[in-house]
Each structure stands twice: as C-alpha cells, then as structure tokens.
Write a structure and sequence with these properties.
mainly alpha; elongated; single chain; Tetracycline Repressor, domain 2; about 75% helix; 9 helices
Amino acid sequence: MARPAGPGRTALLDAGRRLLSGDDRSTLASMSVNAVVAEAAMSKGAFFQHFPTRRDYVLELHRSFHDRLAQSIAASVRGMEPGPERLARGLTCYLDTCLEQATTKALLFQARADVDLAGEVAARNARFAALAVPDLVVVGWDDPARIARLVMAATAEVALIEADRGRRDLRQRRALLELTVGGRT
C-alpha cells in the first residue's frame, strides 16, 4: 500500500520532473528508480513506500501534469459562457501551460508510446475533449464530440511543436483557432 501524499512523495515527483526537463533529459522509458531517488536524495525504500511500482510512479507524474493543466484551464475560463471565446481561451491556456512546464514533451509525446500509460492518456484526452463539446456546439459543429477529439489531438501537436522550439508559435496557434472556431472569436 502506498503512502499518502506528503513531502517525500512530492520530492520524488519533483525529482522526476527535473530529470525529464534537465539538460540530459531522461525519457519516460529510460528514467530509472535509481535516478529518481538519487535526484531526490532519498532511499529506494522511500520510493517504494510512496509508489509500489515504477509504473505507479510514471502514472502519477502523468496525472499530476494533467491535473495542473486542467486546473489552469478551469481557472482561465471560469464564469465564461460556452462558445468560441471560451474555447479559444481554454486552448490558449492549454498551450501556455504546456509551454511553461518543461516536462511537456515527455509527458505528452513519450506517453503516447508508453503501453503502461495508454489507458491514462486516452482517459485524459477524453476528459479534455469533453470540456470542449459545449463550446463546439455553440460554434455550430455537427458531431461536436468527434470534433473535440480532433481538436485535442491538434492542440497536443501544437504543444509539442512549441515544446521543441521553446517558445510560442503564433502561426500554429492561429491555424489551430482558425481550424477550430474559424473567424468566430
């Protein structure tokens, strides 16, 4: 049984984020428990008290990334009525938040190829897509649920482009918004 959240758990997650975003960037697949505990200056035993398996640890890294992302988006659109402006603000917040987090590339791109994360990735994408459905209804899309899934895939792709460049790509962002809401913002 894993220990509840606390300073040790937080230190281990922070260590993983540093490893994924450092100069010699680890990949999700190559990040070892030994590297994490060394980075956190903790013992292997402490790691396994908080995370029964390495898989549990990687899942928690992924979840915490997306939880922060969801909180940022919710705050940015709070009080807005569904529609193109809310959708544009939510997508912009998604991209800005991803760009601010140095672990974005690992947790968006590498997670796609990680078999252990496939279910988690699909569930998170479905949740983010569901948030866009009311906006897409107002925008006028037929079958907004299917469009929302494509919007999330395109948004994640723009986030990866920006993560590679280390800065906003205004052309990609404009294209995403044009594709999604047209001239309706």
